[in-house]
Specification:
Length: 264
């Protein structure tokens, strides 16, 4: 029997096309596997550098262990109290902190450009992202808006500024609140405890107009008698901390707001 040459040619073309598809799929699979392997090695190298680089050791310790004692006031001087001078040691510490934040910002840049999976970044750096999101690191989150936009988005930094006044200080600040046109939240809020074991502080949350943070803080500082250059002796304290709606359970997922808070 003489074979049908047309059918044979058609079958050959089908087999050729099938082989091309299989071969192409295998090449694509191999390429993706190679890229994935390279990305995993890259993310591991980023992590190792973060922990092995001697320049990151001190700022890691500052963020993790010495935040209240060192970092809080350093950052506050950059955000609202830039008129106050920094010592040479404070300048070095702030530069080291900036270097660490720039590194994490670069990691998020690589993620945004799809050169590193977000899941890989989370696997290696989620401890630090989570630490920055804790209640007592509110001033650090505010600082991220000054040049660390990608990291700020990663940890959920709000784009607006807020003021929280405890009930016992609202009368003292009433004239300034009216002059500044601050809008009170219809919800009652309570400031998170500044230290573990402290009671929360009930009061009112106000939203500050965009770009009006420095003006609001300076006028309220004067009205309250707060002196940033002599914080320990001031009759009131000013801190940025997380505040929550009244009766909200932080462990239950209630959304808090970072706000400037005045205390007696």
């Amino acid at each position: 029997m003489i074979p049908n040459l047309a059918n044979a040619a058609q079958a050959a073309n089908i087999l050729y096309d099938f082989g091309f598809l299989v071969g192409g799929a295998w090449v694509l699979y191999t390429y993706r596997r190679s890229v994935r392997s390279s990305a995993a090695r890259w993310s591991l190298d980023l992590f190792r550098h973060f922990y092995n680089h001697t320049g990151f050791e001190k700022p890691r310790q500052m963020i993790e262990y010495d935040f209240d004692e060192r970092v809080r006031f350093l950052i506050q001087r950059r955000v609202t109290d830039r008129n106050l001078p920094l010592s040479q040691e404070e300048k070095r510490e702030l530069q080291q902190l900036d270097n660490l934040l720039n590194y994490l910002e670069a990691v998020m840049y690589i993620v945004d450009n799809r050169q590193l999976l977000g899941s890989d970044a989370d696997a290696f750096f989620d401890y630090w992202f989570s630490l920055i999101k804790t209640d007592d690191h509110a001033i650090l989150r505010r600082y991220l808006r000054m040049g660390y936009e990608r990291l700020a988005r990663r940890v959920g930094v709000a784009s607006h500024d807020f003021l929280f006044l405890p009930d016992n200080l609202k009368r003292r600040a009433a004239d300034e609140v009216r002059a500044l046109g601050l809008r009170a939240s219809p919800l009652g809020y309570a400031a998170a405890a500044e230290r573990e074991g402290d009671a929360v502080t009930p009061g009112t949350l106000y939203r500050i107009a965009r770009g009006g943070e420095l003006k609001a803080v300076r006028r309220l500082d004067a009205a309250m008698g707060y002196a940033a250059k002599d914080d320990a002796r001031s009759p009131v304290r000013r801190r940025m901390i997380r505040v929550y709606p009244n009766n909200a359970q932080r462990s239950g997922g209630a959304k808090g707001v970072d706000a400037w808070v005045y205390w007696e």
